[in-house]
Amino acid sequence: MVKDKQAYYGWLGAEEDRYLRLARIYVPPYDILVESIVSTVKEEVEKLNKPSFYVLDVGCGVGNIAYEILKSLPNVYLTAIDVENNMIKVSKQRLAQYAKEGKAFIKQLNILELSEKEKYDVAYTNLVLHNLPFNDKKNALKKIYEALRNQGLFIWGDTIIFSNEDDLKAMWHQRITHAIDNGALEDPYFFIKNFYKEMYEDHSLKPLEMCRLLKETNFSLESGIIDARYGFALFFARKQD
Ligand SMILES: C[S@@+](CC[C@H](N)C(=O)[O-])C[C@H]1O[C@@H](n2cnc3c(N)ncnc32)[C@H](O)[C@@H]1O
């Protein structure tokens, strides 16, 4: 991740509640994305019914998704990685109890440097890969694929764009209106910084491009949710050897 983006996430993670407060302002379906990931992991754990179930959280942020999973699933062992130091600090605090019990492993690591092989039953990444340019994104998906066991499940939540300019304009209009209606202009500097980053510095894909990348990595796509109004997608794909 480039230095500017690391500073952006460093600032977001510097205060305990700042990230989640702003995520709900700037990502209208944030709670739906989180809830969909957590409930899918739960379903997968129940379906496999194994004594120990291994989960990887790529770009864990403040550790809130990992916390929800660990709270309700006693047989889960979860590794949470994030490249940014402040995010790791907050995650370590949030997951301290589970780390003490040997259930949570929190590491400061770039996904591109992950070296684990065929270990995890589920890997998920939410609102992370849009930070990576295309080739890095491809490599990140390969790393995730290698880290999963055969038939392991991958959940990819992310921002999306559209090829049609009218759709794109309508989406930004909805996003910006939602942010303003929810108090974003209390901090106009961050408002501009956030939308500038999203529009000009991020590397979001079209939903079809996300599907193609999954296929190229050899994942088999199971299902997906596309929120065209606000520009988010969640895909569920399985590793197949
Ligand atoms: C928008 S936050 C999402 C956090 C969390 N997944 C969530 O849904 O709330 C993006 C996170 O991805 C992390 N990140 C960005 N690039 C990364 C990379 N290459 N490897 C690991 N983490 C990365 C950032 O530091 C940040 O914490």
In the CATH hierarchy, the third-tier topology is known as Rossmann fold
CATH architecture classification: 3-Layer(aba) Sandwich
Rg of Cα set: 17 Å
CATH superfamily: Vaccinia Virus protein VP39
SSE run: HHHEHEHHEEHEHHHEE
Strand percentage, roughly? 15-25%
Number of structural units classed as domains: 1
Number of helices: 10
| Helix share, percent | 40-55%
The outline comes out as globular
**Unreliable residue stretches:** none
Give the overall average pLDDT: 96
Ligands bound, unique: S-adenosylmethionine
Biggest β-sheet: strands ordered side by side in the sheet: 3-2-1-4-5-7-6
Strand count, sense and closure of the main sheet?
Answer: 7 strands, mixed
Taking the alpha carbons of the first and last residues, their distance comes to: 30 Å
Report on this model:
- The protein is α/β, with parallel strands linked by helices.
- The protein has 10 helices and 7 strands.
- The protein has a single domain, classed as 3-Layer(aba) Sandwich (Rossmann fold), CATH 3.40.50.
- A hairpin with a 4-residue loop joins strand 6 and strand 7.
- Helix 1 packs parallel to helix 5 and helix 3 runs parallel beside helix 4.
- It is globular, with a radius of gyration of 17 Å.
- Bound molecules: S-adenosylmethionine.
- The site of S-adenosylmethionine has 20 residues, from strand 2.
